[in-house]
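Sequence in, structure out. Go.
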Amino acid sequence: MRDDWSRRDFLRLGGTGAAFAALGGGGLELLAACGGGGSSSETARSGGHVVLGTPADPQKLTSVLIGDTVSGQISAFLNDSLLTKDVDGTLLPLLAQALPATSADGLTITFKLRPATWTDGKPLTADDVVFTYGLLVDPANAGVNSLFASQLRAYVAGVSAADAQTVVFRMKKVYAPFLSAYTAIANFGILPKHVLGGLSSQAFNSSDYNANPTPTNGMFKFVKWDRGSQVVLERNEHYHRGAPRLERLVVKTVSGGTVAIANQLQTGEVDIGQVDYSQVDSLRSASGLSTLSVDSPGFTFYVHQLDPAKPASRFFGSRDVRRALLMALDRQGIVDAILFKQGAVADSTVPRVSWGYSKNVRPKYAFDRPGAERMLDGAGWTKGADGVRQKNGDQFRFEILYPAGVKFLEDMAASLQDQWKRIGVQATPKPGDLATVIVPAFYNTRNFDLLLTSIGLGDEPDSQSLLFSSASAAPGGANAAPFKDSRVDDLLAQGVATFDRTKRAQIYAQVQDIIMEELPAAPLVFQNVILGVNKRVRGIRFSSVGGSSYYQGVWVTDGK
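Output:
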């Protein structure tokens, strides 16, 4: 997760992190494939630098340990994964020579590697790939702190090197999302066995490589990390796909979030950055800047506290109450006023950019304040003399926890407070630091009443497993409510057991219907991502699902 972007990426932390990898506000991974204008007659030049503005410092730079999008973006520049994605989500080889060969039964997947070297001059071999995935699938490495280990161990029987350039994955059963979700995102950048291979799980988790990733195999190499300020990278002259045009890439931490990034775009302190919706008009009128808007590979939502051991579950344990709270919200008004019409009302927990998104999700929740009030009355939550709803002497009061420093989430929390107050529900916004409060609450402690955030999931609909499977309800998983439903578990198992995309889409449509029926988490909006780009920058493509490999062709017109 991150301060102003989403986390898989958090799931897909896609393109740069399916992880889940991602809570926060939108999608830094989106920078991995953006568009920078310029005429086709221009001659690309080498040299110069680009500054990427981010609203949060990275946490760790070791690929398999990443849990936030800023770290995922940087890691993707440093260590390549086996595959990447085109701007439309099509899988492409990166460290692999070509897309892998898959056996007829779908249980053996074989990759051939390109010739590549680490920045210390040593060759990258199949042993490095086996080591990297072994950190996640080998039971001996159970202590490695990765978001993806439990899912991979459920499906991957083992990884081996047939020779120095050939890697073989043996699957326990068919797992359709494997290539898209676990070989083409930043969380699976290949790591150097000759540096990290002798470490215990605990030593690996706290390795110096997290803050000083050397050597690397990607298009850029690490120079320094000034914590709270910047991460500086320089081009890898020996990159296996050819050295990038940029000499230097700086990922700058900008305090003040996306509003401050917009200001620094106008002053020239930042060349590329995600900006707040309120800043779009001023940026469009600024000379020397371009703005781009695309669908986010995620959405903004809130998670109900459903753990019976947590006090707030007394409010949200009733499905009718959860439905009433969503019905009471004018979400189109939120899109218009807070997102400045850069988005749409969300009717599913599968992003619109995903091929698994169902246009016919049922039920949908139209804005109906009187209906919401009747539903709360029916659930036993009636208004007291002070106008606050109560049941058995307990008033309907709770906190809305959200990431601090994200303006549109701050505005949204205030809007939820105001709209719920109108139906007699008292909700108090409570900002929390992303790294020390939000991430632990979401993944581990689950210490919240109602948690409001954004998440990036990419185009693989099995991201729903990370959010809603019973297995993900355990600490460390992304099922934060937590929510358990045998129907959902069965459908999710069916969804990964076939490669037939038509069948998979039908299965995930049923999952979406159940989630919207039960509402363990309530989707609010599909927000667009707004990116500001200095016109000196050329060669960038903007996409919701593409990968960071596109920075290889980025260049600057002034050569500075």
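Check: The chain is about 25% helix and 25% strand. The longest helix spans residues 501-518.
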